[in-house]
Amino acid sequence: MTPSSPDCTDTPPSSAVVEARHLVKRYGDVDVLRDVSLSVAEGTVTTIIGASGSGKSTLLRCMNLLERPQQGQLTIADESMRFTAQGPRSGHTDMPLSRHQLQRLRAKVAMVFQQFNLWPHMTVLGNVSEPPVRVKGVSRRKANALAMHYLERVGMAERADAYPAFLSGGQQQRVAIARALAMEPQILLFDEPTSALDPERVNEVLGVIRGLADEGRTMLMVTHEMAFARDVSDQIVFLDRGVVGAAGSPERIFEQSDNERCRRFIAPAA
Amino acid sequence: MDFSWLSDPFYQEYLVEGLINTLWLLLVSAVAGLILAVAMAMARIKGPRPLAWLATGVTAVIRGTPLLVQLFFFYYGVGRLLEGIPGIQDSIFWGLLRDPFFYATLTFTLSVGAYSGEILRGALLNVPPGEREAGRAYGFHPWQVFVHLWLPRAVQLCLPTLTGEMILLLKSIPLVSTIAMMDLLQAANIIRDETFLTYEPLLLIAAIYLLLTLILTLVLQQLERHFPGVQPQRRRFRWWAQARHG
């Protein structure tokens, strides 16, 4: 993939789990995404970097349709759709995307939010077991076992009965990661997972995410932790004012990018 | 002080009937009113324009006029109008439409719907949107987001205010004595008229009301205490738990 031609994803590798082509997203007359294409291979970590307002979060939120692009095509976890002025259409027909398809897609793509977004009226265990129960129809008993398994995984099992308000930010984010894992998704989305944390809490969360990357999970992440991004990513996408300014391996982006703005954005970190 | 009338079985019967009617009115109006409150709040937040306007209008009228006037309006006004509709007196609904209980319930339900609806609306708007978004992102159906995430959180936020409304409702109920319904105050009125004792019956029903309020407060306090997510903040009895568990 060469940085100068972000459209190179027109011939995707067959193992691509996420395939976005020519996405356009506007709010009123502000173009947030202008023709963004992106491909994520199965079992790889892709990090989206860029300045504030470059459209990183919007792009990530298009991946589970929390934001709906006005134009482009998206294939995520075998769900394929096109976007037109009338809204999202299912892959090859002109039928609007049904709620059923939308929910099926979302069940395969789990998101971790900047502000954790745990449900304060549920215990830690409740937070993690609720989505499988409500969305996948898993029994509460099985979901609780599943939840305990993943809480163990993020080191929060002993706080299973606590309410989120009694946890630190780092602990809350680890619970949120367990909640995402309990859906056993094909793709994990991280939207600035450490930006709302105290500096001394950042590492405990990054440690968990690094562990997931090492497991070979497919992940798409937005972060400002440059060193971490360089470390765990297989692909880095530099988003610049709504277009892909540069994309490629971390070495390439951090050491020999021929995109001037990308070099300047990276400079303080490298 | 003369409480000898208390041993009169007729008066006992009035008082028991009055008490039962009061409790029934409280229960039915509270349940129906809170359901209406959820509907009114959602109509104003998410409903289509005309529905939102309707809810806003009803809220303004109900909150802007005295409860007693509303009670008279429904009982004497609407009730008498319905009476004039040909054939209605033979319909199966007439039993209901003739009963002051129906008009009292209607009035109180609307009142709870308007006041609690506003409280609930504020609480719904105060739930951080991210919590709903998380539900959507995980594939919850919009209805599941509302029932399992949004509404319980809003109720959690405004529960003490809502329970306060229920206690106010209990104490509005004596107004129904003005539409010839046998509640506690009506029972006291009858006893006063027949025994020429003014204070004793009033003192008795005041004591009953005080007791009812205390019981209701305790019940609602338990509800608040056991509401998920509120529980850990309780303070009372902590010394007891510490003493037990060392």
In brief, what are we looking at here?
In chain A, 35% of the residues lie in helices and 26% in strands.
Largest sheet report of chain A: 6 strands, mixed
Largest sheet of chain B: none
Oligomeric grouping of the chains: heterodimer
Number of domains of chain B: 1
Give the CATH topology of chain A: Rossmann fold
**What structural category characterises the helix and strand content of chain A?**
alpha/beta
Number of distinct helices of chain B: 10
Q: Please give the radius of gyration of chain B in angstroms.
A: 22 Å
- Low-confidence segments of chain B, given as residue ranges, are none
What portion of the residues of chain B fall into strands of 2 or more residues?
A: under 5%
Helical proportion of chain B? Answer: over 70%
Choose one word for the global shape of chain B. Answer: flat
Class from helix and strand fractions of chain B: mainly alpha
Mean pLDDT of chain B: 90
Strand order of the largest sheet of chain A: 7-8-9-3-10-11
- Cα shape of chain A: globular
Question: What would your notes on this structure say?
Answer:
The complex is a heterodimer of chains A (270) and B (246). By secondary structure, chain A is an alpha/beta fold. Chain A contains nine helices and eleven strands. In chain A, a hairpin with a 2-residue loop joins strand 5 and strand 6 (87-90). In chain A, helix 3 crosses helix 4 (140-153), helix 3 (124-136) runs parallel beside helix 5 and helix 4 packs across helix 5. The longest helix of chain A is centred in the C-terminal third of the chain and has 16 residues, at 199-214. Chain A is globular. Chain B has one domain (4-245): MetI-like fold (Orthogonal Bundle). Chain B is 77% helix and 0% strand. Chain B contains ten helices and no strands. The chains are: A alpha/beta (270), B mainly alpha (246). The A-B interface holds A 64, 66, 99, 102-107, 110-111, 113, 115, 117-123, 126, 130-131, 134-135, 162-163, 165-166, 179, 183 and B 128, 130-131, 133-141, 144, 148-149, 152-153, 156, 227-229, 231-232.
